[in-house]
Amino acid sequence: MSVPAESIEVCFAKADQINDEKIPYVYGGGQNFVPSATAASKGLKGYDCRGAACAVLHAAGLIASVEDTEELAGWGDAGEGQYMTLWVANYPTLHHCALEFRLPEHPGKRWWMAAHQGTLVGWVPNLPDNWVLTPFLFAPRRRA
What we know:
This protein has 144 residues and is α+β, with helices and mostly antiparallel strands. It has one domain (5-142): endopeptidase fold (from Nostoc punctiforme) (Alpha-Beta Complex), CATH 3.90.1720.10. Helices cover 22% and strands 19% of the residues. The longest helix has 16 residues, at 5-20. The termini are close together.
């Protein structure tokens, strides 16, 4: 499945916007593509990794509804994309996703994610040390 360049730029712009708004990670947050509170967050509004990724993809019209990690793991073509890749882990004890951008005009912004409580959703210089992106653990879903 090929994604138009305009859609990739829209995804990147939405990721940048969320980063600039300094929205916190909130487990279970991000329903309806906006930061939301959950019972566990005691009223704090934010995104979890799935909600944040869905908000970015929805901004470009690439998905119509919020998807869980199982749906995201089966979305798009398998493999890494040339310009954008959605990395998804969907296992009984591990559910996580991150977006990787490879845009020549934005060389300093590659990894975008929501990691864990106490962090902000947005750009990170590198993946956390405990992340090993292998096809065994994380299934890359090529988008473009």
